[in-house]
Amino acid sequence: MTIVRLDEVTKVYGRSQRVLDAVTLDAAEGRRAVVLGTPGSGKTTLIKLMGLLMSPTEGTIMVDGQDVREWREPRRARCRGSLFGFVFARHYLMPELSVRENVLLPLRMVGGRWTDQPMADLLAAFELTEKAHLRPAALSRLERQRAALARTLVHGPKIVFADEPCGGLGDADSEVFLADLLALQKQHGFGLVVATSERSAVAQVGGNRVRLTDGLLVPLESRDRG
């Protein structure tokens, strides 16, 4: 099921900096999409548009079949908090909080009834159970990124947007982290959109593979996929 659709979306900064030019892309439950592009090509803008973190200059963004152009920020924020999860190159963990407290933040922000079980399951999957009491500074880079991913997934998002998710990791840790992400995507069935400048990540993620160049999305040729 398609959750988010960009339909002929254009984004212009200032008077003439056209970053995206009439792009169309879907994010659907259980499906993967990967966008390859050089730094500065507009990948982050694309992720922010799909995640309702900014508005397009032209075109339509649909969420669950609804045009979001008239949505005000409180409704957009509720949608992000319930339907979406985000992964970035930086972990953005709160340094003064423990791993456990960081992972539970989305549930506390949403409010209502919740249990610790989703958090406990994710920490176990990432081998962080014994480090749940530690603060982020005591973790390795891979462990911090895993903790951030646990926080992203704890509320059960339908779509996860990952913008250069391995940007702060070495090659070996990048492969491990992507394997973590893909295994959980398969297990839980959320949709996944990955924006990356790394061809190795394109090959590992698979799914719908496109290149962002000169503001346009074009299908990747087979020779460009890894």
Please supply descriptive tags for the structure shown above.
single chain; 226 residues; alpha/beta; 7 helices; 35% helix; Rossmann fold; globular; four-stranded antiparallel β-sheet; six-stranded mixed β-sheet
What does the model show?
- It is a single chain.
- This protein has 226 residues and is of the alpha/beta class.
- It has a single domain, classed as Rossmann fold (3-Layer(aba) Sandwich).
- It is 35% helix and 28% strand.
- It has seven helices and ten strands.
- A six-stranded mixed β-sheet has the order 6-7-8-3-9-10, with helices on both faces.
- A hairpin with a 3-residue loop joins strand 1 and strand 2.
- The model has no long low-confidence stretch (mean pLDDT 92).
Secondary structure layout:
Blueprint lengths: L1 E12 L3 E12 L3 E5 L6 H8 L7 E6 L2 E2 L5 H11 E5 L10 H12 L6 H9 L15 H13 L5 E5 L7 H18 L2 E6 L2 H7 L2 E6 L2 E4 L7
Parallel strand pairs: 3-8, 3-9, 6-7, 7-8
Antiparallel strand pairs: 1-2, 1-4, 4-5, 9-10
Helix pairs in contact: 3-5, 5-6
Biggest sheet strand line-up = 6-7-8-3-9-10
Enumerate how many helices there are, as a single number. Answer: 7
Mean model confidence by pLDDT: 92
Radius of gyration from the CA trace? 17 Å
The fold-level CATH name is Rossmann fold
CATH class: Alpha Beta
Q: Based on CA inertia axes, which overall geometry fits?
A: globular
Can you tell me the CATH superfamily?
A: P-loop containing nucleotide triphosphate hydrolases
> What is the number of beta strands?
10
Count of all domains:
1
Strand content: 25-35%
